[in-house]
Write a structure and sequence with these properties.
The chain has about 250 residues and is of the alpha/beta class. It has eight helices and seven strands. A seven-stranded parallel β-sheet has the order 3-2-1-4-5-6-7, with helices on both faces.
Length: about 250
């Protein structure tokens, strides 16, 4: 029997990734989870199937280009066809710039920028052969507004956003939707101990924004009213906003 089109979610075992995977599954989509922990992936897929969903998983370390290349080949051979890719996997060192090292900065960029760029490169030919393909990245509002104490993370997310924007222009004659979600602070294990002037979002709110982006074929969505206001305020009064953040 011919399999239905699938949604691929990277970094799917916890936080935003898990919430997105569960949202798409609840909406009737076949989902494929990618993450590093095989045990967590097995438990996640088991939970989805118990709820009547259709799910599979692939265990992979997405910080390693060789692993990514091998995993994407395996993914298409075992679980294709795929028409939607949601690039969620990422990492935050969560330390000030002067305390970072070159290795830490490069690892952050590997996961937050180079990994999704390589996944897009490898899966794009397959996606362009599908009827209604989508690529959606989970970015961050920190790619636009100041994020003191995590400047390298903010830089990597800015790079990812501009990659998606440029691809949207380069691929404008192709029938593919490219979208980006730009949440502010989200309540996950990566954000434990963090606080700010903008209230934190829940992972379910980000998952809903991701599904809306998919349905409506939006280019970018900023979930949460206060996040939208912060984005606009920074655009209009950048110097004042920077002083406020300080």
């Amino acid at each position: 029997m011919k399999r239905s089109q699938a949604v691929l979610i990277t970094g799917a075992t916890y936080g935003i990734g898990r919430a997105v995977l569960e949202k798409f599954s609840h909406e009737g989509r076949r989902v494929i989870a990618i993450a590093r922990s095989r045990d967590k992936l097995k438990d996640l897929v088991k939970d989805i199937r118990k709820q009547g969903g259709e799910a599979d998983y692939l265990c992979a370390d997405l910080s390693d280009p060789k692993t990514i290349k091998r995993s994407m080949r395996s993914l298409l051979n075992r679980f294709g066809p795929i028409d939607t890719v949601i690039l969620n996997a990422g990492h935050s060192n969560n330390i000030p710039f002067e305390q970072t090292t070159d290795n830490l900065r490069r690892y952050e960029f590997d996961l937050n920028y180079f990994s999704p760029a390589l996944i897009i490169e490898l899966l794009l030919p397959h996606l362009l052969n599908q009827k209604k393909p989508h690529i959606i990245s989970i970015g961050s509002l920190t790619g636009f507004i100041p994020f003191p104490g995590n400047s390298n993370y903010a830089s990597s997310k800015a790079a990812l956003f501009h990659l998606m924007r440029n691809l949207m222009i380069e691929l404008k004659d192709e029938h593919i939707h490219l979208g980006t979600i730009l949440p502010g602070l989200v309540m996950t294990r990566l954000s434990e101990g963090m606080s700010g002037i903008i209230p934190a979002l829940t992972t379910d709110e980000v998952a809903q924004a991701t599904y809306n982006c998919y349905q409506n074929k939006d280019f970018f969505i900023i979930p949460g009213l206060t996040n939208k206001l912060a984005y606009l305020f920074d655009r209009i009064f950048p110097h004042f906003f920077s002083d406020l953040i300080k």
